[in-house]
Amino acid sequence: MAKKTFVVGCFDDEEVLFPAIKKVRTAGYKIQDVYTPFPVHGLDHALGMRETSLHTAGFIYGITGTTTALSCISWILTSDWPLNIGGKPHFALPAWIPIMFELTVLFSAVGMVLTFCYLCQLAPFVKKHHFHARATDDLFVMPIECTSKTNIDDLQAFLKNAGAVEVNVQVAEDGWWLGRYDKDEMPFENKIVAA
Amino acid sequence: MASIKEQFEIPSKLKTWAYALIGFGLVALIAGFITKGRGTEEEQAVFIGTIMYNTIFWTLICNASMFFICVTTLAWGGWQQSFRRVPEAISTMVPIFGSITVAVLLFVALSGNHHIYHWLDTKAVENDEILKGKSGFLNVKFFVIWTLLAVGLWSLLGWRMRQISNEADTAAMDGEIGASFIWRNTVRAALFIVWFALTVGSTVPWLWMMSIDAHWYSTMYSWYNFASSFVSGMSLIALWVIYLKNKGYLEYTNQEHLHDIGKFMFAFSIFWTYLWFSQYMLIWYSNQPEETIYFKHRVQGPYKGIFFLNLIINFICPLLILMKRSAKRNYTLITFMAVLILFGHWIDFYQEVMGSISKEEVTLGWLDFGILSLFVGLMIFFVSRALASKPLIPKYHPFLKESIIHHT
Prior knowledge:
The complex is a heterodimer of chains A (195) and B (408).
Chain A: E1 3-11, H1 14-26, E2 30-31, H2 43-46, H3 54-80, H4 93-119, E3 126-128, E4 140-145, H5 152-161, E5 166-173, E6 176-178
Antiparallel strand pairs in A: 1-4, 1-5, 2-4, 3-6
Chain B: H1 12-37, H2 41-74, H3 85-91, H4 93-110, H5 122-126, H6 129-134, H7 140-170, H8 175-208, H9 221-246, H10 255-286, H11 289-300, H12 304-321, H13 325-328, H14 331-357, H15 366-388, H16 400-404
C-alpha cells in the first residue's frame, strides 16, 4: 500500500484509445490499467497483458469436483452403506454421472468466481481508488504511474496530443483498503489540474 | 485486396488422390458384391448394410454444411463469410450422395429385404401387435415418399441458398440492395431449417436407421444422429478450410475463424455425449427388456470394444484435447482432431446400423474401409470441382468486412 502519483488521461473514443495506448507504451510510460465502461475486444492484447490462467484454475477445480463426487459417492454406496436399489450393482456408474457432472460444474463455477475476486482484489468492504467516475459511464480512463524521473508536464502534454479529452494529476493509493466511502476519510488527496 | 487468389485451381495431386480412392473403393465394392452380395440372405444384408450406413453418414454430414450456412445466416452471423464457399461446396454433395442413398434405400424397401428392415415382412407384421401399431409410420409407401421428399427438398432448398450466394460475386451492394439481399437469404435459410428440423431433427434417422430394430425406439435417436452429423460436418469444413489455407487460398480466414470452428467441434462433441448418455442412462435405469435389447449385444456382446472406443474417440479425446484455447487455434491439432472425429462418428454410424443387422459378429473389415474410401474419393472429387466453379470469397457480401476483422 503506497501512495503514488498518477497522470490520468481520459478518452471518449475507442478509435483514439488504441493508437494512444500504443504511443504511450512505445514512449516507455507505465500504464497502471485502463478502466472502461464495457469490455473492449483486444484491449488486453494492446496493453501487452499475459493470457489469464483463470481457465486453468477452472479446469483444476472441475476435476477436483469430479473426483470428490466419484470418491464420496462410491465409498458411501459400496462400502459405507451399500443399498440394493432396483437390483442395480452397488457400483452403478451411469447413475452417478449426473452428480459427478453437477459437482464438476459447482466446484469450477464457485472456484473460478472466488479466484476471479482474488485476482481482481474484490471483496466486501475492500475499497479502491476511482480515477474518474465516468469510467463507469462513457469514458476510457488511463492512469499512468509516475516515477521520480517522470516529467509530469511533458506527460500531460503528451496525453493531450494523443487525443485525451481530459488530463489530470492525482496522488492516490495504489492498492486497496478496508472501509466505507461515505464515512472514512479518503486515504488520498485529489489534486485535479485544469485540463 | 488486389492480390487475393479468388479462383481455386484443383491441384493435380488432389485429383490423383480422388481417383485412387474412388478406384480402390470400386474394387472393394465389386469384390464385396462377388464375395458377399451374392451369398446367403444374411451376407447380402451385411453387404447392403455396409453401403447403407456409409451413404447415410456422408449424405447427412454434407447436409450439415448447408445447415451450418443456414443457421449462421439466420443468426445474422458475419464471421463465416470469409470461408462460406467451403461449406457451400460441400453441400453440393447432397444431391449426389443423396441419390445414392435414395437408390440404396429404395432398393432395400422395394425388394422387401426384411433382413434389414424387419417391418417389411408383411406376415410378421400381421401377427405382431407392436409392429401393427407402428405400421402407419413404418410402411413402404411412407418410407419411399418421405425418403424422396427429404433428399429432394434438402437438395432444392440448399441449391436456392447457393444460388442467392452468387449475387455476392457480381456487383457492390448499397444499403437498400444489401438489406433486401440479407432478408431474402434469411427467408431461404429459414425454409431450409424448417425442413431440416422435420427430417434430420426428427423423422429421417428414425425411418432410415432406427427402424432396423423395428420393435425398439428412442425419441432421442434423431437428435443423437443430428449431433453426430453436425460435429462431423464441422470437422469436414475444418479440413477443407485448412487444406485451402495450406495451398495459399482463403487469405481472409485466419486463426480467429479456426478457433470458432474448433469451438463448434468441441461444443457439439459434448452435445453428442449428452444425448448419448441421456439415451443410455434412461434405458439402463428403467431396465426394461424391450428397451435394453438394443444395448445388450453392444455393451456386453461382440460390439463391446467398438461401443466404448466410440465413447473414447468422440467424447474423451475432444474434451481433453480441444478444451484449451491454444489447441483450437492450432492448425495441426485441429486437422488431427477433425480426422479423429470424422472417423469416430463413422464408427458410431457403423455400430448403429451394423450392430443391428449383424448382431452376432462384428463385420468391420476391408469392405467397410473400401466403401469409405469410395465415398471419400467422390467427396474430394466433387467438392474440389464445386470449389473451383466459383470465386472462393463472396466479395460483395455485406457482412464480409465483419468476417475480415473477426476477433474471438
